[in-house]
Write a structure and sequence with these properties.
The complex is a heterodimer of chains A (about 280) and B (about 160).
Chain A: H1 2-5, H2 7-26, H3 34-65, H4 67-105, E1 114-123, E2 132-135, E3 148-151, E4 156-163, E5 168-172, E6 179-184, E7 187-198, E8 204-212, E9 222-225, E10 237-247, E11 252-259, E12 268-274, H5 277-280
Antiparallel strand pairs in A: 1-2, 1-12, 2-5, 3-4, 3-12, 4-5, 6-7, 6-9, 7-8, 8-11, 9-10, 10-11
Chain B: H1 2-20, H2 34-46, H3 48-65, H4 72-88, H5 97-120, H6 128-151
Helix pairs in contact in B: 1-2, 1-3, 2-3, 2-4, 2-5, 2-6, 3-4, 4-5, 5-6
């Protein structure tokens, strides 16, 4: 056969077919094969260190180019600290009041508890396409697919989607496949579903949908998690609202949210591990 | 043997660079893949067969950390490297122009390929990434092609004709 004489074409066809089959079989898998775990762990040793160094250098440089912004941010933050110090007094009073009332009515506190574990980011997003981070904790450290990941300020980053023995992959909020039920801080009626979003200039935002038409959400509101999703604690900060739109066709309001977490600059993350894993049903 | 070893090490090194340094050299939120520029230039210089295996090896490395399914990068890299090898047959390999243009074109193809495959698998990604990445990678090729060409024309890289 003439085809057999052209070794290259045959090789290409055979390899293409095998890759297509492998792609088909491995879609949506959550656990790494043994070989992948091993190679990944080896590479992560080197990558982790280099990533930390580059990250530090990048942060130093961005400090130099943004001096003016930093100055004005500094002023704003000083003012905010003042305001918060005043609010703290009021909070203490409310807290004590609340506890007294609970005791009087014999209310039980909510039972889910969480421990928090810190991890290092070993590698950044895979070439812009899918927004993921690789961290240096995996199955052997007690991680499970679906665990929530926060940055070291406690703001939402994403979820674990893939496990190897010593490392795992996190999909960040930028990936539109992640959805969480969220609410505007302090206004329990303004709740909806929040999903990741990439704007046309490639910046990472989130879209907050299915809010009731009666909600009074506005620009500047802080969006936090609602605590309904399993494994998702309540009141984790997600971001601030930058834009509100009405969707009269679906009788809902939508908003665009700018996340607090700086996905490009993450060096360390915190994983939320529920103490009661069985109930969460990973 | 030496050539295989050096090429293999270079691929691993560039892959690590891609994951650790490149994410910080962002322009407008996009950053290039130095590894991709290398494998295309390699395929142009060294032909289809060697390009094929280099593409597969680089693809395997990229796929370990890539989300979703395994094999997307392998498939696309392999096909594009064979194409690059074909392009390399009829040009003056010591000139940069055609390699740069091919890097641009093949990078767009890879970008579109990834976009389409991820769409089929149900994931939405940003198509503009392909074009900006391609332009960025073309600029990297401008600087990298000559050194790569020189590397593969050193004495210990060439196969001796034995009479």
């Amino acid at each position: 056969m003439r085809l057999m004489k052209n070794k290259l074409a045959v090789t290409v066809i055979v390899l293409s077919a095998s890759f297509l089959i492998i792609i088909g079989l491995s879609v949506g898998r959550k656990n790494a094969t043994f070989a992948e775990s091993g190679v990944g762990t080896a590479l992560n040793e080197v990558q982790g260190r280099i990533y930390k160094v580059s990250s530090k250098i990048s942060n130093q440089l961005s400090f130099l180019t943004h001096v003016n912004e930093i100055k004005s941010e500094n002023q704003e933050l000083k003012k905010k600290i003042n305001d918060l110090a005043n609010m703290e007094q009021h909070y203490e009073y409310l807290k004590n009041d609340n506890e007294n009332l609970r005791k009087q009515l014999n209310f039980e506190k909510s039972s889910t508890n969480y421990t928090y574990k810190g991890a290092d980011v070993v590698k950044g997003a895979a070439g812009n396409w899918v927004d993921e981070l690789i961290i240096n904790l995996g199955k052997d450290n007690g991680m499970e697919v679906g665990m929530v990941v926060l940055d070291n300020q406690g703001c939402l980053v994403g979820k674990i989607t893939f496990l190897a023995s010593n490392w795992s992959r996190i999909e960040t909020l930028a990936n539109s496949n992640i959805a969480v039920s969220a609410v505007v801080g302090g206004k329990p009626d303004n709740n909806g579903i929040l999903k990741g979003l990439r704007e046309s200039n490639n910046s990472i935002m989130a879209s907050f949908n299915s809010l009731p038409l009666t909600s009074d959400i506005k620009k500047g509101d802080v969006v936090v998690t609602r605590g309904l999703d399993p494994g998702f604690p309540k009141d984790i900060r997600i971001g601030t609202v930058t834009e509100v739109q009405e969707d009269k066709g679906k009788l809902a309001k939508n908003a665009i949210v700018k996340p607090f977490a700086e996905f490009n600059k993450l060096q360390e993350v915190t994983i939320v591990m529920p103490k009661d894993k069985i109930n969460v049903g990973y | 043997m030496k050539k295989t070893l050096i090429t293999g090490l270079l691929i691993i090194l560039l892959f690590i660079l891609d994951n650790t340094v490149m994410p910080f050299l962002v322009i407008y939120n996009y950053y290039p893949s130095v590894l991709f520029v290398f494998i295309i230039s390699f395929s142009i210089i060294n032909g289809k067969w060697q390009g094929l295996w280099v593409g597969v090896f680089a693809g395997i490395l990229e796929d370990i950390f890539f989300g979703n399914a395994f094999g997307i990068n392998c498939l696309l890299n392999m096909l594009l490297c064979v194409l690059a090898g074909e392009i390399g047959l009829n040009i003056f390999k010591n000139k940069r122009f055609v390699p740069m243009a091919s890097t641009l074109g093949l990078s767009v193809l890879k970008g579109v390929g990834i976009f389409v495959i991820l769409r089929i698998l149900g994931q939405h990604t940003n198509i503009y990434t392909a074009f900006f990445k391609a332009i960025y990678e073309m600029c990297i090729c401008l600087f990298l092609y000559r050194p790569i060409y020189k590397l593969y024309h050193r004495d210990y890289m060439k196969k001796e004709w034995k009479f």
